[in-house]
Write a structure and sequence with these properties.
2 copies of one chain form a homodimer.
Chain A lengths: L11 E10 L6 H12 L5 E8 L4 E8 L2 H18 L2 H4 E18 L4
Antiparallel strand pairs in A: 1-3, 1-4, 2-3
């Protein structure tokens, strides 16, 4: 567990979430943890990777078995966020790109 | 310029690079800067986003007009890295996923 997701062979779906945190993010950490806990339980969840820089720039990529699973997660996540607090409160700017992963390769010193 | 790429409407291609830095990364910063400078000059380059966590986990997503442009960049990058120093020296583990972005949406407090 080094923060890099172990995934099946492509194809699968990636949801790339890039965001800049706003000044006011009270309650963010708890909510982010709760969202991850919720995501891993969703049908079609494959894994996720999340990196946050000291200056508040964040990229989280979640991986899903297909586009339908990603769309279902979007509905669940939005519902949950609406119940708590809008994503708009925590982020001054975010962009989400939903993509079909077509090929993948890598290198791991521990397994090569 | 808040670190989040401004991109055209989909479709386009995303190259998701997730990596964990190794202990020995002498020369990394200079090389990473040189690679970015090289990338932005490539045909079909649309933008990139890069986040690095204090613990050495990194996600960089580069965006390309199409798969061919992403493949061409791979060839150029590998050639350049081979000339300097292998990516294997800087990263204990990395995974690259090449994906076709099919839809995108977001929210920006400054423009909404």
């Amino acid at each position: 567990m080094d923060g890099i997701a172990t995934l099946p062979e492509p194809p699968y779906t990636a949801v790339i979430f890039t965001a800049r945190r706003s000044e006011k993010y009270q309650g963010y950490d708890e909510a982010a943890e709760a969202m991850v806990a919720l995501a891993v339980q969703q049908p079609g969840y494959l894994g996720h990777e999340s990196v946050e820089q000291a200056d508040g720039l964040e990229i989280t990529v979640s991986y899903w078995v297909n586009d339908e699973a990603a769309r279902n997660w979007k509905k669940v996540a939005e519902h949950r966020e609406a119940q708590r607090r809008g994503r708009e409160d925590w982020y001054s700017h975010y962009e989400i790109r939903v993509a079909r992963v077509e090929r993948a390769y890598g290198h791991n010193q521990d397994t090569s």
